[in-house]
Amino acid sequence: MTTMIGGSNAEAELARLTRWSEWAPAISDGELKARMDKARELMALAGAGALIVNVGPSMRYFTGVSWSPTERLVALIIPASGTPRVVCPVFERGSLEAELKIEADLVLWEEEEDPVEMVCRTLAPGTVLAIDPMLSAGHARQFGERLAGTVEGGPVIDGCRMIKSANELALLQQAKSMTLEVHKAAARILAPGIRASEVIRFIDQAHRALGSSGSYFCAVQFGHATAFPHGLPYDQELEENQLVLIDTGCRIEGYHSDITRTYAFGEVSALEAETWELEKTAQAAAFAAAKPGVPCEDVDAAARAVITKAGLGPDYNLPGLPHRTGHGIGLAIHEPAYLVRGDRTPLAAGMCFSNEPMIVYPDKFGVRLEDHFYMTDEGARWFTQPQVALDKPFT
């Protein structure tokens, strides 16, 4: 093992971590206004007179409100002109106003009232409503029954969110840089007998020590559990001469990191070492294929071609690559566009993606290397540098 893996403990590593010093600025009021203006441009192209945005990442994108969806209707209404409206239960008004960062009229409803009907009454007769695909099916159906017409709101919302601003890129960079430091610390605490749950707890504490709200998610897998992309439902103990796979991330102002490292704790088999090298080659091929104007699916095809040429797959067959090569990332950890067959979205400056063409040998082991890149006019750029070698997880 290298000095990057093992040799320390959780207490020592946590003592070394301090609050992140280069904090990216929050999204400004001016940027929120620009997002609203862009949405209205795309609404016009879609033939919509208003857009409804469900509570969740997309509503946060436009308003700053960070709530998660529940059964109650909470949403943003963006009309073609005029002041936006926020739909919310009356009893949540105080909490809403504490987070709302835009000027908006409030459509407040009591528990026995019909919020869909209340929203419909605020719309001009004949309004065509663009509906957020994340709106509940029940609420979407009710709007469809009561309005002159509805259209798909995904192209409007995704058309805004897929292209990140310089400020968004800075927030994403901070989140990813912080998580990479946490990965480095986690590798140093590994020792025979340590439980996956201990590592998960440490990673959460380390994210908090750097100033985030903790891990947004964390998967720690040893040995044969690495063959399962999202792990197994029991707590493992690390043994000598096993693969270690750690996948984790945090959020900064809602923007996500999501980084995976797979490395050897001791000596691993020749097949595991060869597969690691193949995984790195596939990840590099995907990155090289990411050029402005290229369809997203071509990036997936580039990684898959490397794996197929090595005699694995083809397609999603195992041993091989069981899932897409990557996903968009921003205020949601998985968001459009996707590096997968069938997604013909052309790559453009400002788009951000994971690059993680995992290779799985069923019930034996898996190798996933995951870093993220963003598009520029010249091509792809890494947020974090990929893993160097099987026994050297960091540069």
Automatic annotation (TrEMBL):
Keywords: Aminopeptidase, Hydrolase, Metal-binding, Metalloprotease, Protease. Residues 35-163 form the Creatinase N-terminal domain. Signal peptide: none annotated. Residues 171-377 form the Peptidase M24 domain. InterPro entries: Creatin/AminoP/Spt16_N, Creatinase/aminopeptidase-like, Creatinase_N, Pept_M24, Peptidase_M24B, Peptidase_M24B_aminopep-P_CS. The keyword ATP-binding does not apply. The keyword Hydrolase applies. One of its GO terms (biological process) is proteolysis. GO terms for molecular function: aminopeptidase activity; metal ion binding; metallopeptidase activity. Belongs to the peptidase M24B family. This is Aminopeptidase P family protein. It comes from Novosphingobium aureum.
